[in-house]
Structure formats: C-alpha cells, structure tokens
Specification:
It contains 33 helices and 13 strands. The chain has 781 residues and is of the alpha/beta class. Among the domains are: 319 residues, Alkaline Phosphatase, subunit A, CATH 3.40.720.10; 75 residues, Alpha Horseshoe (Serine Threonine Protein Phosphatase 5, Tetratricopeptide repeat). The longest helix has 26 residues.
C-alpha cells in the first residue's frame, strides 16, 4: 500500500485543530450516499468532470468577483458544494491533470512538466476504474498538451483529441488548442449516443489560457478592461459552454442522475508577483483554483467548505460519490465527510510544486505546503503568508513567525518523502519521430524527468526563482518567437538573457534550435557542449547534439554520444532508438537490430520503437515478425506515418503484389504527398501490368517531389516502353540526373540515356553514356 498524505499533527500546529471532525463525522457518509442514490432509483450515477484550464478562483462570481460573468458556474455553486480553499498540485496543465485523474501527487506519478514525460501505464486512472465497472468513458480535450500520447487516454473508450499538427513547424504544447464550443459540440454528441448508459465524461475547456481571444460578443464586451478583461471574457465564454451541457442534462432528464465536478487545473498570474501567466511561481494566483461538486442530494446544496482541499482529492471523492472504493495507493482523501459536515474543522493541507525553475533553468525548485490559513513556500529565501488576511501574499511572515515556518517546512519535507516513496520511473510519451523533433525545438522533449546532476560547485546554492523572473520571461518570449520562425529575434533575446545567467539550460537549448535553423550548426553544437560541460549528464543536450551530428553525417560521433547517454541512464529509450536509427539509416540493420530490440523491450507500447524495429526486421528479412508488428501498429494507430508504407515494402519483397498495392494505396490515402509510397506503388502497378497506373504515379512523384531524381527517371523509363518522340524523354533523364545523389540512380539514368541515343542513331553518345553508367555501377558495387 502506498502511503496516504498524513495530516498536520495537533501538537505541531494549533491551526490543525478540528481536523478529526472533518475526517470522521457522525454517521457513515457512504451509507448516506447509498441511501440517496437508492431513493432516486440510481444504481450507477453518471459523472461529468469539467476541468477549467487556467482559471483563477478569484475570477468567478461565486468566489466573490464582482466583474465576473459566470452565471452557469455561480448557479451550480448555489446548487452544490463550493470548496473555498482548493489548491492545485502543479500550475502546469499535464501534471495537474495527472494528479486529478489518479489521486496521486506528482512526487509519485512522476509527471512534473508539460511534454517531457507521460503518465505511466502502471498508474490507474479514474477512467480505467469507471470503465471496469461498466461505465462508458469519454474525454474531450481542448489543447494538445493533453493529447492522449501523454498517458491520460488510459481507460477512455473515446478520447477526442483531434488537433491538426501538420500546420505547425514547431509544436508549442500550450499554443495548439481548440475553442470550447468545438469541445462541447463533440462532448454533447457523444453524450447523446450514451445517454441511456452510465457514463464518465471528462470535458476539458482551455479557453482562459493565453492568448486571451474570446469570441464575440465577449471580445467587444470585455476588451475595455485590457488583458485582464479579455481573460474574464474567455471565462465568460467557457461558462456559456458549461451552460450548454447543463441545459442538455436537464432536457434529457439526467440532472437527477448525474454528478458534476468542476475544478481548475491551475490559475493565471495576471501580473501577481510579476508573473504574467503560470508555471513558474506557486503563489495563490496560480495555485488557488475553483472547485465545485453538484449532486442531486438536498443536503449537499448551497454549501461552502472552508477546509483546505487539493486537486489530489478529486479522484477518491468522485469514487465515493459513485459508491466505488478508492484505490489503496491514492494519496488524496474523499471530501464527502467534509461536504456533509462543513464547518466542523477548517484545516487540512495541500502540496504544490514548480520544478520548471530547476529542471529547465538550473535554479532552485519551488515546493509549498498550504492550509486554509497559511502558505509556506520552500525556496532559497523561504516565504510564509497568511492567505486569509493577506490573499495577495504581499507580506512575508517567515521571519516574524519563524516557528510556524520551521514546522511547516518539516511537514512539507516529510510529505514529499512519503509521497515519493517507491515511485515508479517516469515513462516516455508515445510520440512519432516528427512530433518529437518538432517538440524538441522548444525544449520540451528530453529524458523523463528525474533529478539533474551538476558537475560544477555542488556546494554553491541554487538561485532563487524570485531573482530570475525577468530572465524566465525573456526565455519564454523567445520560445514564442521560435514558434513563428523569428529565429534571429529569438536568438537576440536569448543571447541577452544568457549574458545575465550564461548557464540557463532552457535558454541554451532554445538558442541551439535557433542556430540550427539559421544554418549555424557549429554555434548550436557549442551551446550544447557548454551545457554538457556544466552538466555532463544532461540527457536532453546529449541527445540534441547527437541529432545534429547525425545530420552532419558524423554517425560514429552521434553513436558515441548516445552510448554516453546510456552510461548515465542505462534504460534511456531515446539513446537506444537513435543508435538503432543511425545504423538503420546506413542500411546496417544487423547492428541496428539489438538497439531497436532494447528500445521496444523498455517501451513496448511506444509506436515509434516498434515501427523502427519492424523496418530493421524487414532489412534482415525477418518478414513474419515485421509483419506482425506493422499490423499491430496499424490496428492501434491507423494514421501512424509510413506504417502502411513499410507493410507494402514487406509484401513487395515477398512478391505479394496485390497486398503491396493495397498497403501503398492506404498510405497515400492518409498522406497524399508521400512520394516514396507513390513511387513504390507505381513500380508495383507496372509489375501487375498496369502501365497507365504506373505512368500516373510517376507523374505525381515529379509533382510532389520535383527535386528528386526518381520521378523523372522512372517516368522516362515508362515512356521508353512505348514508341514515341525521344526529345522529351531525354530532357526528363537529364533533369533526373541533375538531381541524382546516389551511384545507383546515376547509373540507371545513364543506362536510360544510352537507350535514347541508341534509338536516335547516335552511337558515340550511346557508348559515352554506357561508360558512365558502368562506372557508377562499379562504384555502387
């Protein structure tokens, strides 16, 4: 059994008095819930979880914000239970939702940043629990940062995360989103299909996230109050979308059989303590979130709970309300006792963290312990705030109330140690190569997050993030510029930031990205070398440098860096994958195979790993194993790039031409611009006797790949199969030869040219072309 979060002891903190009554009220809450559902004739109540991205509690009407336009949320608060003091575990979308869905703190589930790691398969989500109990489970996602490849898809029979990634050169996890009306359209369509079944639906609304661009009429109505007004306009639009769902439930007679839970994943800085957005600090502007639960039970209407609660409490609470047992390893607690007896104790505790300063910048991490009265932030200069009297956290009490600060620091350390005990290793996300490369450009993808090592002065204290906000904001702005390919401007901003602090890992990684795109590969390598001098074990820099070296044709150096990575982390999947891909790129599938086998052993569900392994298995003619892998990939991920192409290649090698044709055709239906599939399809069609289809394919190859030799040369070959004028054919061959990069293609081109000269009665030119063809063929051999 994994340790539960312990409460503050009464002996240690006087403000913990009364907690026993919250946890152990008179009567049995479970029996109360059971009686209520029985009286309503409900065996399995429906559950809808709304996650309100980037939503501050103090910007909703029900939390006292006079300028809010949130009639739906306010009405739900009046019908349900409002938690006045709810805290998120992390002010970042992915790790925050991992906590909500598992009842585990990030210290255990291991997802500490957006993009670097996925929720591990060994974790159990709410969706898995509900699905196992006969529920229909559906998720409707508003932003790419929660794409199913980061692990939250587990247990959902339907996971609606459709984002068109092809239009983005670089992938900023926070910028790729869809508006709440589209999310709600998808959710209501699914709910309509399952309204007669018990369902668990998760609806993620991302609108309050930057950029603040509410649709009309909200844009016009709120624009006059500046950025904060536009932020409020986004919340108003989100509120209207929630209203659509509430109205749908009422119209379909499901209001009395459905539990609604609304929670913010984190807030937004809006200038508090200098932070414009979120993810860096852990002040209340980003930690204090709205949290409402609405049931049809009369005793749970119009209630406000003042006790401290956490996003880690969502999962056990929903399970309790559905009459399902919480998992023993869950670190949150059911809030049902506090809901039934509000006011019987004001204290609990909540943990929050920000590891962005540490893991991306090399500064100190931030951890906090929050109660309904105080928040303690552990930093090089610790902070303590009375959040009841000082909600803006303007007066640090850590020196005036040193005993309380020390006690909360001790409790925080104990909580972190207990909740991280026996935590599994973080898991890599299931990303295809193209997605991984486009994310890497913005510094997202590296090793699964663990503690970094530093080769420098280990006694030197880490910088306090409070002193580094301006640099953080500059690096963040540079990342946004990279998204729009403003590489020179981004580089200038980064270079200025690095003058003040030349060791910023994230800044150097982004500058390396800029330099690669500006053709300054040597400078990019110098930045990565600098990171590795400061931190030789920095896996992200090792892998980024290895990627550059592969592009420079320095395969052995790249492989050496990957081996160095494996000396730091013997189970690093990316290193095994890159070594295997490098060997495979040299057609050395014999050496590639053991590395690709190891990558699949470590991450058997990572589609990219299995695809690479299948490609090398084809290379060593282990066709049966390769075919089984490819068919599994196509079944699980029908749109995975080149899976159908490789299946076609396999069938073609075995002479199964009709199956090869079908596989290549399927690849082209998904990726019409894929010239290799088109080229191979043409060759197969010719072998099947379809010359017209062959010619159509080669003409299309020339169209989609005008700087590749294959289309021109093989189109010319097709024209030579029939009598006709030779001038146009010669032009095609000469153009193809101008683009030919390999000895094989050059030899083929000159053989074709020799045929043309033979037919046109030019023996001298024919013999010259044959000599060149044979010379290139000898080089190939």
């Amino acid at each position: 059994m994994k340790p539960k979060i312990a409460v503050l002891t009464v002996a240690a903190l006087a403000f913990a008095a009364g907690l026993w009554f919250v946890l152990h009220p008179a009567g049995d809450p479970a029996r109360t819930v059971a009686r209520r559902w029985s009286s309503l004739g409900v065996e399995k109540p429906n559950i809808i979880l709304f996650s309100l991205d980037t939503t501050r509690a103090d910007h909703l009407g029900c939390y006292g914000y006079g300028e809010a336009q949130t009639p739906t949320i306010d009405a739900l608060a009046a019908r349900g239970v409002l938690f006045e003091q709810a805290a998120t575990a992390v002010p970042l979308t992915l790790p925050a939702h991992c906590t909500i869905m598992t009842g585990l703190y990030p210290t255990y589930h291991g997802v500490r940043l957006n993009g670097n790691t996925a929720l591990g398969d060994e974790q159990t989500t709410l969706a898995e629990i509900f699905a196992a109990r006969g529920y229909q489970t559906g998720a409707f996602i508003g932003a790419f940062v929660l794409d199913g490849r980061w692990g939250l898809k587990q247990g959902f029979q339907h996971y609606d995360d459709r984002f068109d990634l092809k239009k983005y050169k670089h992938l900023d996890l926070g910028a790729i989103q869809r508006p709440g009306d589209q999310v709600m359209d998808a959710a209501l369509a699914w709910l309509g299909e399952h309204r007669r079944d018990p369902f668990f639906a998760w609806i993620h609304l991302y609108d309050p996230h930057i950029p603040y661009e509410p649709p009309e009429p909200y844009a016009s109505e709120f624009r006059g109050r500046g950025l904060t007004g536009l932020y409020d306009g986004e919340i108003a639009f989100m509120d209207a979308q929630i209203g659509r769902c509430v109205a749908w439930l009422a119209a379909n007679g499901l209001a009395k059989t459905t539990v609604l839970l609304l929670i913010g994943d984190h807030g937004e800085g809006l200038g508090s303590h200098g932070e414009a957005t979120h993810g860096f600090f852990i002040y209340d502007s980003v930690v204090h979130v709205p949290f409402l639960i609405v049931t049809p039970f009369p005793e749970l209407q119009g209630r406000r709970v003042a006790a401290q609660v956490s996003s880690v409490d969502v999962a056990p609470t929903l399970l309790d309300l559905a009459r399902l047992p919480a998992l023993p390893q869950m670190q949150g607690r059911s809030l049902l006792p506090a809901m039934l007896r509000p006011g019987k104790g004001r204290e609990g505790q909540a943990y929050s963290e920000s590891l962005v300063p540490d893991l991306q910048f090399g500064w100190s991490p931030l951890h906090s312990l929050r109660t309904a009265g105080f928040q303690f932030i552990d930093a090089p200069r610790p902070e303590l705030y009375d959040i009841h009297r000082d909600p803006g956290e303007g007066t640090d009490l850590s020196l005036r109330q040193a005993d309380l600060a020390r006690t909360m620091k001790s409790e925080l350390d104990r909580l972190m140690e207990e909740t991280s005990r026996d935590a599994p290793k973080p898991q890599a996300a299931n990303l295809d190569k193209e997605t991984m490369e486009r994310l890497s450009a913005l510094g997202y993808i590296g090793a699964p997050v663990g503690r970094r090592s530093r080769s420098g002065d280990r006694s030197k204290p880490l910088a306090d993030p409070k002193d580094k906000l301006a640099i953080f904001e500059a690096v963040t702005q540079a990342g946004a510029m990279i998204m729009t390919e403003q590489y020179d401007a981004a580089a200038g901003l980064l270079e200025t930031a690095l003058i003040d602090d030349p060791t910023i890992t994230q800044g150097l990684l982004l500058l390396a990205t800029c330099d690669v795109h500006r053709g300054r590969r040597d400078e990019a390598k110098a930045h990565l070398d600098f990171i590795l001098r400061e931190d030789p074990d920095n896996i992200q820099a090792l892998i980024a440098l290895a990627d550059i070296l592969v592009g420079d044709g320095k395969s052995e150096d790249a492989i050496a860096l990957c081996r160095r990575t494996l000396s730091v982390d013997e189970n690093n999947v990316e290193a095994y994958m890159l070594i295997g891909e490098t060997y495979a790129g040299q057609d050395d599938h014999v050496h590639a195979l053991p590395y690709l086998e190891k990558a699949v052993e470590l991450q058997p569900k990572l589609t990219r790993n299995r695809f690479n392994l299948a490609a090398s298995l084809i290379g060593v003619k282990q066709f049966d194993r390769a075919e089984a892998l490819l068919k599994d990939i196509i079944r699980e991920a029908p749109r995975f790039p080149r899976a159908n192409y490789d299946l076609g290649l396999l069938c073609e090698e075995q002479g199964r031409l009709e199956e090869a044709r079908a596989a290549y055709t399927q690849e082209l239906s998904l990726f019409p611009q894929e010239f290799q599939a088109r080229f191979n399809l043409g060759k197969v069609l010719l072998r099947l006797g379809d010359r017209s289809g062959y010619m159509d394919c080669m003409r299309k190859v020339v169209e989609v790949a005008p700087r590749r030799a294959e289309g021109y040369l093989f189109l010319a070959r097709g024209l030579l199969l029939e009598p006709g004028p030779l001038d146009g054919i010669r032009d095609l061959i000469e153009k193809g030869l101008s683009f030919a990069q390999t000895s094989e293609l050059k030899a083929f081109g000159f053989f074709l040219l020799a045929d043309v000269y033979n037919r046109s009665g030019e023996p001298g030119k024919m013999n010259d072309a044959l000599r060149k063809a044979n010379a290139y063929r000898s080089k190939k051999e």
